[in-house]
Amino acid sequence: MTWINAIVQGVLVGGLYALFAAGLSLIFGVMRLVNVGHGDLIVAASYLAWSIVHATGLHPLLSLIIVAPVAAVFGYTLQLGILNHTLGKGILPPLLVTFGLSVIIQNGLLQIFTADTRKLDAGALETGSFALLPGVDIGYLPLLMFATAVVVIGALQFLFYSTGLGREFRAVSDDREVAELMGVDERRVYAAAMALSLAVVAVAGVFLAIRSNFDPFMGPGRLIFGFEAVIIGGLGNLWGTLAGGVILGVAQGVGAEIDPGWQVLAGHIAFLLVLAVRPRGLFPRIS
Amino acid sequence: MGEPLLRVEALRASYGDAPALHGVSLELAKGETLALIGANGAGKSTLLKSICGLVGQIEGRILFKGEDIARCPASRIVRLGIALVPEGRRLFPSLSVEENLVLGGKARRPGPWSLESVYALFPVLKERRRQPALAMSGGQQQMCAIGRALMSNPDLLLLDELSLGLAPAIIKDIYELLPRIAGGGGGAILVEQDVMRALATAGRFVCLQEGHVSLQGDPAAHSRDDITRAYFGT
Amino acid sequence: MSALVSRATRASYVAGLLALVLAAVLVSAPWWTGIATERLIGEFMIYLALATLWNLLAGYAGLVSVGQQAYVGFGAYVLISLASLAGWSPLWAVPVAGLGAAAIAAPVARLVFRLQGAYFAIGTWVIAEVFRLVCAQIAVLGGGSGTSLTPAAMKLVAASRPAREAAIYWLALALGLGAVAVAYALLRSRIGLALTAIRDSEIASDSLGIRIDRVKFAVYVLVAGITGMVGALVELQKVRMSPDAAFSVNDWTAFVIFIVVIGGIGTIEGPILGALIYFALREYLAELGSLYLMILGALAILVMLTAPQGLWGFVQRRFGLSLFPTGYRVRGL
Q1: Phi-psi region for residue B110, left (φ > 0), alpha (ψ -120 to 50) or beta?
Q2: What is the reported pTM?
Q3: Which of A97, A106, A224 is facing C125, going by the closest CB pair?
Q4: Complete DSSP assignment for C130-176
Q5: For residues B36-63, b (16+ Cβ closer than 10 Å) or e, as one string?
Q6: Is A168 on the interface with B (CB under 8 A)?
Q7: Which stretches within B131-182 are classed as H helix?
Q8: Coil vs helix vs strand at A163
Q9: Has residue A285 been placed in a domain?
Q10: Is residue A112 a part of any domain in this protein?
Q11: In this structure, is residue A136 part of a structural domain?
Q12: What domain range includes position A68?
């Protein structure tokens, strides 16, 4: 039964991993950019949420009302001001600039908040649970995280395929030059995509802060989990990313059952297996 | 006699270190259809792209309705009233037929063209409106590309190699619709490999050869030999 | 009129002579300077080696790896296994660490080459993490807290402390100068021509029949091997290593990338210049701690946005200077 419990918990935490990954997947889909600082931005969002909660006494989830818009505006500005200038010149500039960003964020957080770990307390949400089966408890928080992941990905899909902005995302990703001919301002489209990505990052960051202790250096680990979820699920497919997150979560859960020290390693091995056997992921859409 | 719709003055254009146009000048009046002919690499597509704002390194002037647009970004130029049907169609693969057309109308200029009128012109597009754009045949894709350009209600329509990769019967159908497309008091520039068809359709022609204008005028006023010489540059 | 096709420039002749003089001076250092200076120069040589190697990978072969720390750590662990567990002389363990790193790089390359661009970069990072986590599980080597080289092993290097430090110093010199020499020789060879072609345009290279995959694979394995030796050297220098230190992204990748980017990617001189700048900055700014890292990050961003060719690239463009010429020039026209 502990195995079934491990798998169920793994599925639920997969929702959180999918939230880590969704923003990454979105950006890559629209502008072929991989933000190496993505994980650090998630952690920064966690710190922002923590600061707001400690300043106002708001419930952690409610802090999203402030964190999400702030993150979106930051993303819009970051893209317009810096990242747009790295596009179209090969893989090095975006990679190195976002890498530099990652270092700056990590050390900036260290300067401001010190290396002590923090955590957000969500009260009853964290401790409450119901029993699905004897020995398998479903916590409210993990369930909420999973449900949120489904809602967020569903919303992103809707945006992509049923709105004007989504149309422009797809057009600009297909053929930047011709999209310009139609009057699409690609700089603003990219900025909108980054704003959206960071809004999702905000959600992920708040959940991260509630779920576990966090410190300034957790970013790269979250980036790697998100990246693994994207690759396992397949490039260009947001629902695939959810599946990827679930698979990663389950692999980690099973690994932890074997030996707690094996948790993260088991996830990496699952990722490497998929890479070896199905290099394009399980449900790829982009070529 | 008003001022010309388009006047290109001593246009030089380059891609990186490679110059493509070495001082091209031409004029287009309102309501005129101009045929742009020349061998591969003569600079025809470069000239169209320069007018549309897709070429970065430009010297000279491009006056559209009196305004110099030579260094304007492409997204502004479409709002001023110039639309391109690109060589090879270049429809958006991730978008449906209708989505391609709707995106073409983003510039939101006033005029006779809308989704309904484009569907009236090309009924087959209406039938396949929800299909991915690339699921159609070459000829149908060409119609979609033309419709997409029309959706911005351009005053100047640029058509780059309409007949590329299409069966003769389809080409004939599309060319028969050209008067309805280029009618309306605007202007059109037609780049076409099929020289005879181009000269038959247009009122005037410009022949490019290795980046300069080698001959221009009324098709009827020039012999086949003249045109061949200008084309190949002997 | 006769035109001479040559590879050297006047500047490169001068530079070559200066380099020989400098090398002689450096080799003789243990006789005229103390251990602290030896260590500093040794550290410089380590970063010079890592930067030159990373530049070969990213600046020429187009393989932007953020996971070279995998081979640094691997080399360190091979050395400590052979020296502390198997009783080898650490000096012999260094080349074996290199061979081991090259050997393990081959299957890793097969796997990780399935990813492109930035995803390749993160993939290499994952591999490094896997190496780290596996090493942290090896109880006999200290598990998560690592272990030290035994005094017996250290004695096998040399009997006295000064001799030991000298030996380690010369090893560092060999690796640092050797890496630059290997890079220079490689880039002047046919493989180097292929690499430069790949650097300039993969599509064009492909159409010319250059076996891009093979060249990249070869460079990746070669770089991994030398990186493994550097890792072994680092272990020898530090004596005590933990998995976190051996596989540290900051120490073995972030700083290296900054050095190459600021100095000038895609040139041989760039990493040298970058390493000099990095050490100079460290002298004056290191006490700022994490603020120093933020400045490095901001500097790298600034360079990438305004002068992506780095400082040396700028100098090369402006003054046409080339100290390590790898191309051909036509003289006499």
Answers
A1: beta
A2: 0.89
A3: A224
A4: HHHHHHHH-GGGTGGG-EE--HHHHHHH-SSHHHHHHHHHHHHHHHH
A5: bbbeeebbbbbbbbbbbbbbeebebebb
A6: yes
A7: 138-150, 168-182
A8: coil
A9: no
A10: yes
A11: yes
A12: 2-277
Q: What is the tally of structural domains in chain C?
A: 1
Long-range contacts of C30-36 (CB under 8 A, 24+ apart): C30/C162, C30/C165, C30/C166, C30/C169, C30/C170, C35/C161, C35/C162, C35/C165
Asked if A121 is an interface residue toward chain B (Cβ–Cβ < 8 A), one would say no
**How far is the C-alpha of B150 from the C-alpha of A206, rounded, in Å?**
48
Contacts of C326 (CB under 8 A, 6+ apart): C7, C184, C187, C188, C192, C196, C268
How do residues C169-197 score in pLDDT, each as one tens digit? 999 999 999 999 999 888 888 888 888 78
> What count of CB pairs under 8 Å joins A to C?
118
Question: Domains of chain B by range and CATH?
Answer: 37-45+81-232 (3.40.50.300)
Looking at the complex, report in whole angstroms how far the Cα of residue A170 sits from the nearest Cα belonging to chain B. 6
Tens of pLDDT, residue by residue, chain A (287 residues): 688 899 999 999 999 999 999 999 999 889 988 899 999 999 999 999 999 999 998 899 999 999 999 999 999 999 999 999 999 888 888 988 999 999 999 999 999 999 999 999 888 888 888 887 888 888 899 999 999 999 999 999 999 999 999 999 999 999 999 999 999 999 999 999 999 999 999 999 999 999 999 999 999 999 999 999 999 999 888 999 999 999 999 999 999 999 988 999 999 999 999 998 988 889 888 64
Q: Could you give the CA distance from residue B24 to residue B60 in angstroms, rounded to a whole number?
A: 9
Of A226, A191, A207, the residue nearest A67 (C-alpha): A207
Structure tokens at C202: 């993969």
The reply to whether A29 falls in a domain is: yes
| CATH number, position A270 | 1.10.3470
**How many domains, chain A?**
1
What pLDDT was estimated at residue C107? Answer: 96
Query: Locate tokens 């490999």: which residue?
Result: B193
Q: Which among C115, C129, C293 has the least Cβ separation from residue A107? A: C293
Chain A residues in contact with C64 by the CB 8 A cut-off are: 91-92, 95
Q: Are A167 and A151 in contact (CB under 8 A)?
A: no
Residue C253, domain CATH? 1.10.3470
Question: Which segments of chain B have a pLDDT < 50?
Answer: 1
CA-to-CA distance for A206 and A61, rounded, in angstroms? 7
N residues, chain A: 287
